[in-house]
Automatic annotation (TrEMBL):
It comes from Bradyrhizobium amphicarpaeae. Pfam families: BPD_transp_2. This is ABC transporter permease. The chain crosses the membrane at residues 21-40, 52-70, 77-96, 102-124, 131-149, 184-207, 241-258, 264-283, 290-310, 316-342. It is found in: Cell membrane.
Length: 354
């Protein structure tokens, strides 16, 4: 019981914005709206909403590595693609019976995390940092994208799963949950919406607890001054590697859910544009806070989606301009800046009322 209360208290802390009854009351209202949303919308629109939720996981992964850890990584889409292809290869070969898709989900995320362990070990224990870490992760991402794009021939297959080169893999089965009355198949509509929403809440709250723990405090200390953290006795490389692997697992989860949602995965998901977009979402939202990252990602994605429908030629230009304006006007993030301003305003009004 004491341990549970301790975890509950860590939902609030110095490393996350938002605390007290007002914040959690608003959180409950937003959650209630999200839960009721499928009741007032059609299945197609709800399925498209899942697409937005899927990208929040990769944004949170970058928030963890870059915002809290201070390591700018272009490799999140590499982990995204590895897990997406891993899920496709496993489920095409072994099918979806007996809940194997859930096993494939966990295994694909584990494969992405294992790759991160190998890559991160050589980077962090090799003392690669700063801009060079970004260069290495970008090189790995583009190398994987180029490699997968040339696997079009019939010889490029793993079991019965063809990689299909630039066209990518398709036809993967959706997530299937074993159930006494018959398996529940989560197509891209209401069922998958609630599954992904539940995962998103779990990950968000879990990351709040993690970042307000002693581990999170050390990660932020390393970001601010790694030499001082090392002098205090912390193994900086170990903490950076653990953060990198957790972030890779979240990016991998995003890749699997994307593959489940669309039932396809292509090498372009690891391309230059795909690698840059999460940076813009996180920068605009506010890279040093989880809540602002979630809000910023959903807002920018909604704007980007509207532009791709009504003015696709301006969509990427808009994203570039948005990033430049964010860096010039609010380098800590537009959403985080607005949240901090609202917090100060609320505190001032409370003092006057008191």
């Amino acid at each position: 019981m004491t341990g549970f209360l301790s975890l509950f208290r860590r939902l609030e802390g110095p490393q996350t914005v938002g605390r007290g009854p007002a914040f959690w009351g608003l959180f409950a209202v937003v959650l209630a709206v999200a839960l009721a949303y499928p009741l007032v919308s059609d299945g197609y629109t709800v399925g498209n909403t899942v697409y937005f939720f899927v990208w929040v996981f990769i944004a949170l992964s970058l928030c963890l590595i870059w915002g809290y850890g201070g390591s700018l990584s272009f490799g999140q889409t590499a982990f995204f693609g590895i897990a997406g292809y891993g899920y496709g290869i496993l489920t095409i070969n072994f099918g979806s019976a007996y809940g194997f898709t859930l096993v494939a989900l966990v295994a694909a995320v584990a494969i992405a995390a294992l790759f991160a362990v190998l890559l991160g070990y050589f980077m962090f224990f090799g003392r690669i940092a700063g801009v060079f870490l970004g260069i290495v992760t970008l090189a790995v991402t583009l190398m994987l994208e180029r490699f997968m794009a040339q696997t079009a021939g019939p010889e490029w297959r793993i079991g019965s799963a063809r990689l299909n080169g630039f066209n990518g893999m398709s036809g993967m089965p959706p997530l299937t949950i074993p159930w006494p009355g018959g398996p529940i198949v989560l197509f891209a509509d209401v069922g998958l919406y609630y599954f992904v929403l539940g995962l998103l809440i779990f990950v968000y709250l879990g990351l709040r607890i993690l970042m307000n723990s002693s581990f999170g405090n050390v990660i932020v200390a390393i970001r601010e001054n790694p030499e001082r953290a090392e002098m205090l006795g912390y193994d900086v490389r170990k903490y950076q590697l653990i953060t990198f692997v957790i972030g890779a697992a979240l990016a991998g989860l995003s890749g699997v859910l994307y593959t489940v949602w669309g039932q396809y995965i292509t090498p372009s998901s690891m391309g230059m544009t795909a690698a840059a977009l999460p940076l813009i979402w996180v920068a605009v939202g506010g890279r040093s806070d989880l809540t602002s990252t979630v809000i910023g990602t959903l807002m920018v994605l909604a704007a980007f989606q509207a532009l791709t429908i009504y003015g696709s030629q301006y969509a990427l230009v808009f994203m570039g301009v948005l990033l430049v304006l964010t860096v010039l006007i609010a380098p800590n993030g537009l959403v985080l800046g607005a949240m901090n301003w609202l917090g100060k305003l609320a505190a001032r009004l409370t003092r006057r009322a008191g």
